[in-house]
């Protein structure tokens, strides 16, 4: 079985690299551009993307690239943050909602779309068995605890030692904003799965 795991986390890259060295005959590890992956067409029968899509502006090209490297019948799993779905009468988020997201994005330039937008992108590439679930209630305890730890004195000093004051500034200011948007339903933590046709 061949798998493609996409992540923007440097810690994930480090851990994956270490594990791949232990199992060199079974695993390879590469850092590459998600919009121009260095893999042949139909290379993978399972693709898992965890929270990297938010950092990609061109979502259409991203989904097209997933479709290209996925083998016929391949399963794609995406775990990501999305903003709320729009009603049929809405063209965009409310101005106050956009302002709230802008506040979060000021120091962490993420590119969010809605779950419905992702589903439409998958449909446009002829993916089948498209399923979606809102995992927000399941991850809420984790983010509440992470906020508490991050904003504690011990958490601040630990983060500064590992990432420096500049990164701490970003984390410190972003954390409450992210958590509040999460609680009020503007942001959701979603899982989407689909299959490429045989």
Automatic annotation (TrEMBL):
Q: Which SUPFAM superfamilies match?
A: S-adenosyl-L-methionine-dependent methyltransferases (SSF53335)
Bias regions of kind Basic residues — which residues? Answer: 11-20
Gene Ontology terms, MF aspect: S-adenosylmethionine-dependent methyltransferase activity
Please name the GO terms of the biological process aspect recorded for this protein, alphabetically: alkaloid metabolic process
The record places domain Methyltransferase type at 11-78
Enumerate the residue ranges of region (Disordered).
1-24
Q: Which GO terms describe its cellular component?
A: cytoplasm
Q: Which Gene3D superfamilies match?
A: Vaccinia Virus protein VP39 (3.40.50.150)
The UniProt subunit note reads as follows:
Homodimer.
Name of the protein: Methyltransferase type 11 domain-containing protein
């Amino acid at each position: 079985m061949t798998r493609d795991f996409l992540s923007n986390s440097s810690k994930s890259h480090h851990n994956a690299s270490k594990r791949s060295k232990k199992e060199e005959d079974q695993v390879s590890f590469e850092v590459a551009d998600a919009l121009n992956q260095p893999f042949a067409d139909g290379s993978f029968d399972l693709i898992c993307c965890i929270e990297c899509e938010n950092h990609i502006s061109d979502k259409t090209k991203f989904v097209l690239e997933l479709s290209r490297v996925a083998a016929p019948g391949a399963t794609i799993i995406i775990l990501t943050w999305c903003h709320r779905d729009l009603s049929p009468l809405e063209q965009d988020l409310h101005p106050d909602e956009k302002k709230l997201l802008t506040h979060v994005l000021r120091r962490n330039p993420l590119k969010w779309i809605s779950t419905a937008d992702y589903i439409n992108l998958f449909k446009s590439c002829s993916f089948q068995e498209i399923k979606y679930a809102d995992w927000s209630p399941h991850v809420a305890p984790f983010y509440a605890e992470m906020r508490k730890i991050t904003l504690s004195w011990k958490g601040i000093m630990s983060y500064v030692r590992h990432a420096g004051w500049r990164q701490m500034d970003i984390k410190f200011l972003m954390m409450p904003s992210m958590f509040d948007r999460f609680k009020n339903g503007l942001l959701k933590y979603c899982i989407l799965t689909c299959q490429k046709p045989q």
